[in-house]
């Protein structure tokens, strides 16, 4: 169960965030409204929220998940693989010290963005992507083992981050889409298939028994509810325009 979440208000520069999408630039005012609604949804799921002020020097900084991995015992400050995002880790240690005594970090030449890290029980899957490299994954696995946990890697060929195409929903259920549908490393889970035209919804977010799902993907909502979960549907259209999803917008622990 999660008790806390950290979010960062998007700054006006979010319109210049990194993207592979062809959906146009985000509407900043609309993004602010969507972010506020997202934060309220986290509160409804029982989380205490720490809100960080915008960091307009870094357009992607609202996607705070990528700069730290938070567990029940320790946190890991990552080293983003996108050069423009490297400065986002500045000050994160001070924030995390309010919650953690044990704070680890990934060191260059290792790169790791936590959007590539998916926890399933006591095991962590790490996507090897354009943002997370093998040295970064090796460092993380050593950290995990220090605390009695395990980790393994999944090489991505198409997706930006591992959690772009898979979300663990607890109770052995996992949303999967695209190249991860037939991933052997995930075969032991009850895989809920997200159809190609709803692929964005593979990044849904389990919070204390409720699953947050992006708006516009009714078939995925139906499948999640059929698996026994309650859902909250949220419009995050402006963040999708800059390759952001529901999990990207918070640190949860």
Could you outline the blueprint of secondary structure elements for this entry?
Elements: E1 4-8, H1 28-44, E2 48-52, E3 68-70, E4 75-77, H2 92-96, E5 103-105, E6 117-120, E7 123-128, H3 134-146, E8 150-155, E9 166-168, E10 173-176, E11 190-193, E12 205-207, E13 210-214, H4 218-226, E14 230-234, H5 237-240, E15 251-252
Parallel strand pairs: 1-2, 4-5, 7-8, 10-11, 13-14
Antiparallel strand pairs: 1-15, 3-4, 6-7, 9-10, 12-13
Structure, explained:
The protein has one domain (4-252): 5-stranded Propeller (L-arginine/glycine Amidinotransferase, Chain A). The chain is globular and about 40 Å long. By secondary structure, the chain is α/β, with parallel strands linked by helices. Helix content is 19%, strand content 24%. The strands form 5 sheets. A 3-stranded mixed β-sheet has the order 2-1-15, with helices on one face.
Give the CA-based shape. globular
Give the helices and strands as they follow along the chain: EHEEEHEEEHEEEEEEHEHE
Could you give a short account of the major beta sheet?
3 strands, mixed
CATH classification class: Alpha Beta
Radius of gyration: 17 Å
Q: How many runs of DSSP E, i.e. beta strands?
A: 15
Helix content: 10-25%
The CATH architecture designation is: 5-stranded Propeller
Report the oligomer.
Answer: single chain
* CATH homologous superfamily title: L-arginine/glycine Amidinotransferase, Chain A
Taking the alpha carbons of the first and last residues, their distance comes to 8 Å
Strand content: 15-25%
- Compute the number of structural domains: 1
SS content category: alpha/beta
